[in-house]
Design brief:
By secondary structure, the chain is α/β, with parallel strands linked by helices. Helix content is 38%, strand content 17%.
């Protein structure tokens, strides 16, 4: 679709217009917790139920995380619909995730009658003020005749430049108004190509580099764009790292893959990137986590960086690059691949050095006790389908699959770069609904699971079967780690009391497993997949093994020595 399209003839209510506007924008799924503030929109969605699957969720944060996962996977704006006041407040965490993760998202919020504005009426919130720091754009529709215009604008903003979330508040009266206006579809917009001299200058800088590193990040990548970057990097034998929680952008089993830059990164990779004389950052904002707390290069000074980003405002925000290129990432990747396809391999020795660091880092150490989670995960990796979608939550547990498993070409990896707990389960459910024929494996800690784990109910209602691996160590592990580093032995506020997670899923009619030894994980996964039901595999970890590198005793010893 492109430009204006003729809608249904005759008068339509605002609720019908809103539903038809979603159809006109190509929306296939909407994730919602119903509210009385948008009953007319719900009625409009009933009329288009053959075109849009309305997914009923259990909590607004879960609904927005499902929509965010849909946006990450498809590159099209995910859509969530929530009610006013408390519903919008619950939804705000998902908006923050979408903003920091650069995910296209449209959040629709039911609003009070506009005649009651500024009376502190029931559930009144000024959404322009509330969401202004969290979203790319916030608007409110009070005139039904403007629905096609403003909804088309919302989708344009969500997917343009650096993608992100847009919030649209819809007043009650507007949904009931009868108007006759045409629908508006997406504008035909050509991607922004790099300036004519950009790639020749990049190749000139690359020719002069002895220790280059490619860092991939950002969102909106197509399969063709990822393949083009892969082909270029392999043709030039360049080492490739990915930014924080962007593991799906490059084949982790490739001999050119050097690892991920983020929380829990391999120290040797970080050291090599600091040694690099040219970093080609494609799509990455080089944010706090990826840049190791802004320590990779001196902030505010010109550094050996070529930064490629669709939003010029993101280029040089912290690190001043030698060259900034504003371009659509996929258009840039194709142009780069085609610019010098036959160039000789110049950096093989340097690439092998970085790959050797990666291989040493993923080698499973010996751990005390019956469960070596690293070895169990590597055995699980061999079981996973070639199109698996991984989702992860925030927390120390996530460093285990990120360190010891490889996300391969054809697989996807979703994780919150803003460190939001409670993301993995709803995003896994959203991923399974978006791609019903793909295997979805969600990693979550015991703390994060009890924040949004009830969204597994949505999986049952929607007929999908994600497999959730709950890593249970009975504590908020990341905070306990920092606690032990700063206040060794003074445990305060970080211990948790948990249910039997296998029985939790069984109460829904799903499949539950408990894993306590290394050899139990793969058979448990096979049984979970064979069940065809939503499943939870609870992995019971020792609380002493606080990270994949250190125990509590080791942390205390280091902290005590430092104090003396």
């Amino acid at each position: 679709m492109d430009g204006s399209i003729t809608g249904k003839p005759g008068l339509r209510t605002g609720g019908q217009l809103l539903a038809d506007a979603l159809v006109a924008q190509g929306v296939t799924h909407a994730f919602s917790v119903p509210g009385e503030s948008f009953l007319d929109l719900l009625d409009g969605l009933y009329e288009v139920r053959d075109k849009i699957e309305l997914v009923t969720c259990r909590f607004e944060a879960g609904a927005v995380n499902m929509a965010e996962a849909h946006g990450k996977l498809t590159g099209r704006p995910g859509v969530a619909i929530v009610t006013r006041g408390p519903g919008a407040c619950h939804a705000s965490i998902g908006v923050h995730i979408a903003m920091q993760d650069s995910t296209p998202l449209v959040l629709i919020v039911g609003q009070i009658p506009f005649s009651e504005t500024d009376r502190d009426t029931f559930q009144e919130v000024d959404y322009r003020r509330m969401f202004s720091p969290l979203a790319k754009w916030v608007t409110q529709i009070d005139d039904a005749a403007r629905i096609p215009e403003l909804m088309a604008r919302a989708f344009d903003v969500a997917r343009s430049g650096r993608p992100g979330p847009v919030v649209v508040a819809i007043s009650e009266e507007m949904q009931k108004s009868l108007v006759e206006v045409p629908d508006i579809g997406p504008a035909l917009t050509l991607p922004a190509y790099p300036a004519s001299g950009a790639i020749p200058r990049l190749l000139e800088l690359l020719d002069g580099a002895q220790r280059p590193v490619v860092v991939l990040g950002g969102s909106g990548w197509s399969a063709e764009g990822k393949a083009a970057v892969r082909d270029f990097c392999l043709a030039h034998d360049l080492p490739v790292a990915v930014g924080f929680r962007r593991l799906g952008l490059f084949d982790g089993s490739s001999p050119n893959f050097a690892g991920d830059l983020g929380v829990g990164s391999d120290a040797s990779l970080v050291a090599r990137v600091k040694e690099s004389d040219l970093v080609i950052a494609i799509g990455s904002r080089l944010g706090e986590a990826t840049s190791q707390g802004y320590t990779l290069f001196p902030a505010g000074q010109t550094s050996p960086i070529v930064q490629v980003h669709p939003d010029p405002a993101e280029i040089g925000r912290v690190f001043r690059p030698l060259l900034g290129i504003t371009a659509d990432l996929n258009a840039f990747a194709l142009a780069l691949r085609d610019a010098a396809p036959g160039k000789p391999r110049l950096w093989g020795e340097w690439t092998r050095k970085l790959r050797a660091c990666r291989e040493a880092n993923v080698a499973a150490p010996e751990y005390e006790g019956p469960l070596n989670f690293a070895r169990a995960l590597q055995a699980l990796e061999a079981e996973l389908p070639a199109d698996t979608i991984f989702t992860v939550d925030a927390g120390n547990f996530a460093t285990w699959p990120q360190r010891f498993m490889s996300v391969r070409e054809g697989q996807d990896f979703l994780g919150p770069t803003n460190g939001a707990m409670g993301y993995s389960v709803p995003s896994g459910v959203g991923a399974a609904i978006t791609y019903r024929d793909r295997c979805v494996v969600s990693f979550v800690g015991d703390g994060g699971f009890l924040m949004t784990g009830q969204e597994i109910a949505t999986a049952f209602q929607s007929g999908v079967a994600p497999i959730v691996i709950v890593v249970n160590n009975g504590q908020y592990g990341t905070i306990r780690m920092y606690q032990e580093r700063t206040y060794p032995g003074r445990v305060s506020g970080t211990q948790l009391t948990n249910p039997d997670f296998a029985k939790f899923i069984e109460a829904f009619g799903g499949h539950g497993e408990v894993v306590t030894t290394t050899d139990e994980l793969v058979p448990a996964f096979r049984r979970a997949r064979a069940s065809g039901k939503p499943a939870v595999i609870e992995v019971r970890m020792s609380p002493e093994q606080i990270t994949n590198r250190q125990t509590v005793a080791q942390l205390r010893a280091v902290a005590t020595t430092a104090k003396h």
